[in-house]
Amino acid sequence: MKLTDLRDNPGATKERMRVGRGIGSGKGKTAGRGVKGQKARTGVAVKGFEGGQMPLHRRLPKRGFSNVVFARDLNEVNIGRVQQAVDAGKLAAGSVVTVEALVAAGVCSKPRDGVKILGIGEISAKLSFEVTGASKSAVEAIEKAGGSVKILGAASQA
């Protein structure tokens, strides 16, 4: 056996069809693409279409849900950022910190559905917070600094 004797098995490869070489060839004129329209043009693939077979994205089961109706869009503010605002004189120490106060101080850009205080950073100012939510670490740090946290609408939260 020589290297030149190596061949594919019969039927393993197909000859390329030479399209668009005259009407007599049977694949001339429109080259097997039918007539006109989007799919007769080059570079077209209809996304998700599998030749009439049920597409994969419709065969797979649906999972999860989107809680768009009841989802709340909250501002998330770390206590370190609040302390920066106090140090810069934008928030008065000993004052009540609400969403409106944070927006006025430039900590939040707009009120949205409220504000949630998170515990990253240090806080030394004695502040009383009236917010929509607060993490456990944030509440501990605020109370350690001598402040207080009041959660608004706590009855509606689960």
Structure report:
- With 158 residues, this protein is an alpha/beta fold.
- It has two domains: 20-64, no CATH class; 75-151, Ribosomal Protein L15, Chain: K, domain 2, CATH 3.100.10.
- The chain is built from four helices and six strands.
Question: In one word, what is the shape?
Answer: elongated
CATH class of the largest domain: Alpha Beta
Give the termini separation.
79 Å
Task: Please identify the structural class as seen in this structure.
Answer: alpha/beta
Mean pLDDT: 92
CATH architecture type of the largest domain: Ribosomal Protein L15, Chain: K, domain 2
Q: Number of helical runs?
A: 4
Main sheet summary: 3 strands, parallel
**What's the number of structural domains?**
2
- Tell me what portion of residues adopts beta-strand conformation: 5-15%
Strand order of the largest sheet: 1-3-5
pLDDT under 50 segments (min length 5)?
none
Q: Helical amount among residues, as a percent range?
A: 10-25%
What sequence of helices (H) and strands (E) makes up the elements? HEHEHEEEHE
What integer value in Å does the Rg equal?
34 Å
Number of strands: 6
CATH fold-level label of the largest domain: Ribosomal Protein L15, Chain: K, domain 2
